[in-house]
Amino acid sequence: MLHWVRLELIFINNYPSLLSIRLANTRTLTNDTFDYDMDGWKIKSGEWHHVTIDTNEDESSGISGDVLVNAMGSYYGGVVSKTLTFNNTGEVAFDFYLQNDGNVTNSMTFSINGIIVLNVIRPSAWQHSVVYGLPQGTHTFSFEYIIKGDGLGHKAVVDNFKATTSRLMGSFIADYSPPKAINDLGETKILRGYTSFQQMKKYDTEITFQIQMWKEEYLRFTRNQNSIFYFTDEFGIIYRGRFSGLDTSHKAVELYIFDVTMISDSDVGYGFADYSRQKELMENENK
Predict the structure, then answer these.
(1) What are phi and psi of 219, to 5 degrees?
(2) Angstrom distance (rounded) from CA 211 to CA 225
């Protein structure tokens, strides 16, 4: 059975098929480095500011170890937000830093569409966030710095906020095996940024299927076969991963046929862009 991959639903055997693959990170929506200003982030309440040599009151260090400049930060607490429209499946990630001296327990949260998916409650050195998945549509991102002590010497800082979208690959998908858990790759986490090595999971997810592509799309695929891809299953669940196996031994005229195995660190049945799952994982980490 073949599924012609398009954005619209195709009804096969009386259920909608959404099977598709997308090449990730093909378009950058925003890459906020805060070199000159707040890069479009709006203060909703309290205080956030563009960090410069003058506003870095305690002369703390930046990512590179030099004096912190050109970032977005808060000393006294508040909420800052930005809204972006994704024309396809996408993702966001950023760098962050929370300073708490002594017994102060200030915290910083990151929210997507009003749902808190990151809650930093302990002092942290500079960290690269996990990658947060976004389905097609308009999404609002917010950082909130919550203070319980004085301002000076305690701060929340965000830098290098990047949002990207993907490109649908024109293809037929056949011989599809639904996502399943595999338990032998837990020590090799390469899909979610630098902190993924510290956030080990019990299993990865394996998805196997056959791809059939015309020549032009096949060339585009092979040029990028080691990149990150998104796979959408029949339930509309999005998985983010890489292809670990690729057999290109079949060819019929201009149609290229090959079997692939995708390895994803998205949970089976939840996927990559499920905010409720992000919230659940965050709550478990903070217990």
Answers:
(1) -60, -40
(2) 12
Q: Which alpha helices (H) appear in the chain, and where do they start and end?
A: 215-223, 275-285
CA 142 – CA 186 distance, rounded (Å): 31
Half-sphere CA count of 40, side-chain side, radius 13 A = 12
Query: How many other CB atoms are there within 10 angstroms of residue 89's CB atom?
Result: 25
CA dist 29 and 93 (Å) reads 12
Domains of the chain in start order, with CATH, are 3-26+167-285 (2.40.30), 27-166 (2.60.120.260)
Average pLDDT, the chain: 79
Sign of CA dihedral 122, 128, 132, 137: positive
Please indicate whether residue 273 or residue 88 has the higher confidence score (pLDDT): 88
* Residues 6+ away with beta carbon under 8 Å from 242: 190, 191, 226, 227, 228, 229, 262, 263
Question: Whose CA is closest to 212, among 36, 77, 19?
Answer: 19
Residue 5's pLDDT band, with cuts at 50, 70 and 90, is: very low
137-146 and 204-214: which strand pairing? unpaired
- CA 180, 181, 183, 186 torsion-angle sign: positive
